Fold this sequence. Notes:
Elements: H1 3-12, H2 16-33, H3 41-51, H4 61-68
Helix pairs in contact: 2-3
Amino acid sequence: MSKLEKIIEFAKALPKEQQDSLANDLVCLMRDRNKTIKLNANEIADVQAAVTRENPVFASEAEVLAALGESFS
């Protein structure tokens, strides 16, 4: 299991409020770590809505890396 997978499993076990806070922090981190990715207000709202769903669906590590083009480790 990769580091990202372990973090995701840990995050899934957190209470919903902590998951939401963590998701918001992750969005901020991703924005800061990769300045070439510019999320507009609608995209940020979409991400925030997605992570607050009762049964959210997460991208795989491969999908994230393909979209971002780099590793965050």
